Predict the 3D structure of the following.
Amino acid sequence: MKITRIAVYKADLPLEHPYWLSGGRLKFEVLDATFVRIDTDVGLSGWGEGTPWGHTYVAAHGPGIRAGIETMAPFVLNLDPRKVLDVERAMDLALPGHLHAKAPIDMACWDIAGQSAGLPISDLMGGGSRTPAPIASSVGAKTIGDTRDVMNRYRERGYVAHSVKIGGDVDLDVARIRDVETHRGPNEVILYDANRGWTRQQALRVMQATEDLRVMFEQPCETLDDIAAIRPLHSAPVSVDESLVTLQDATRIARDGLAEVFGIKLNRVGGLTKAARIRDVALAHGIDMFIMATGGSVLADAEALHLAATIPDAHRLAVWACQDMLTKDIARGQGPRNRDGHLHFPESPGLGVHPDEAALGEPVAVYGPT
């Protein structure tokens, strides 16, 4: 089997509500999504998606994905997509770094491999828990009242896990956390996510001021060095997200005891192939996990669910599904959807979902025969 053609599509995915990150310092309204269709000489096709969270969240953006694919396409054409390690090495040699550009190609290759084997991706990866995965909301809000309103909106949809965005104002952050804890449900999982929005002193002030609540924080500071510097000075469990990019990051976090939770974002780390190694580091060190797409449609959510299904239920805290935040559905109801706050595993071979090509329009680029 060989890759004969790579088609690239661009789509704007509008958010249902404007999204405020880290106390309102960043605002997002539309996501720039890239979809990739890989065709083979045996008639199988696979789909991938790369949707960064805007252009200003981290060093990843939609135009960069499409430019990266242009660079890598000549090195990927004619490879066997089922040999995901060969494809990974070809991409890494053609374009060092730029993991967010590699993720959609990796995803499409896993989709083809699963279809070829007649298995869902997670089963092909050696896992396959059918336990429905709780969906974590993403609560970006400016005021305490807004936070309550957004959380209640998700609770009405059945959500029992929440990522509450904080950062930028110490007093407001402490007040927001204390208010959320007054209406936390008995079985809810709540993560307070600063998205790198604190300096070291700000992080310590908030984390020490809320020690009595025994809450969990994600990415309190900019770098792993910052997180390591304040680690001995507080007792709160920590999740690392934006600073978890490479396998080297994962091994340092595990070795130095910097976090109790990994927030693995598939587009950020380069796709399923690389994410699986980070998962294994976490499991080897007793580190729990949130599994997430960086953003995007039900395709990206399905990919995250497949990785989540390879993790023992006790170590998988939640997945994040961006689809509930969008006003545009490019897959017409296919794939894993929210049912009572959970995603249910797709049983179809491969990814288990593909976009409606009419909704995507014409490709913006095609590599290989047209």
About this structure: The mean pLDDT is 93. Residues 99-117 form the longest helix (19 residues). Residues 54 and 81 are 29 Å apart (CA to CA). The first strand starts at residue 3 and ends at 21.
